[in-house]
# Entry
Amino acid sequence: MDGEYVFKLDVLVHTADSTGLDINGTSYTLRTSPQIGPHFNPKQNRYETRDFIAFNGSKTKKVHLVSRENNKSYDKDFIWSGIAGKYFIELVIPSSIETINKAYYASNVEVGDYLNAQAKYERKAFSGSDIQDSYYMYFGPRNEKELKRYNVSDKNGWGLSGYRVNQALQTYDFLKWLENILKFFLEQLYKLVHNWGVAIIIMTILLKVVLFPISKKQSLSSLKMQELQPKMKALQDKYKNDQQKLNQEMAKLYQQAGYNPASGCLPMVFQFLILFAMYDLFNNYFEFRGAMFIPRWIPDLSSGDSVFSWEKEIPVISGFTANHLRILPVIYVISQLLTSKITQYGQPAGQNQTTMKYMMYFMPFMFFFMFYNAPAGLLLYWLTSNILQIFQQLLINKMMKEKRAEKTASNAKVQKTLPPKGKRK
# Structure
């Protein structure tokens, strides 16, 4: 049917007599295509996936396929299931799920080095001379625009409804609402600038502006915590053998200082939620596929950038680089190092300094190896966020320096009003 990613498969079986068809409880096996594009090498394409997914009417179950996994049974209930890649999906929707005996999934290599990714369905044995089974097959993009058409009967040519096939989307279930909000604003920006890369940069800037008060509050909260550290340490030493009394005195100290311990954690939790939602959105957004940002350097936001490529396989190096020299991960690591350095500037020395130095120097280099082949759209978001974080942190550092100076001046003023130590009562 024109304009549809769903086709209907009718299976008719006729036997010469009325004995039916029964081969160990099965009449026939239906298989999806052995591969789903593009070509997938799990050693190089770390950000591509092959999964068996199934939906039972309320929850989606996903099974990640690993190399050379052969015919594993899926014994849970489902109303549709299939094979999903990052951007494309194959779904099988039986018109009568009761006829299915068992479902299987496999990823064994059958041809060359092409990783198989296949779903198989056993139809129950039958008696009689004739049967007719119908299946609706969705073979198409893994994006909400196309998938949700098959949730409402008047939106698709087959009259399908109620199957909720958009549950096949790649998303964090508990953050789906946040991803949808971010996706909406990203799409509105694209309509204005007509370039997904520019839309990512603008959206990142807007997010930083919106979240700046939260970052500021978190930093000021950490400053308040630093001021309370000596008193907290004194209470911990005094009541080290009485946890209940310690908790009471600590609560009293917080109340007197007007400090809420959760004020430093909640902003961080919210920012992490944004980070996870943006990661999932930018890593799986179908519209980034083939979307150009900068010609010759970033021609496709769904794959890594490339300034030079080669064909000859180089041991170890080719496995890591996928035969591409990329600049975006290098710039990202430099920005991450600068961000970490500026964030720690002015922080008081303490027992956590060794851990902080580890985080500051080791983690960015670990990220370099982890994200070298990451989609350019995802790295562009992180890089823009880091650059903005540098300027934001410089501003916050200046504010905190002024706050410390004000506190020092205030303490000095109080000390001047006090009588000499020898005359204090």
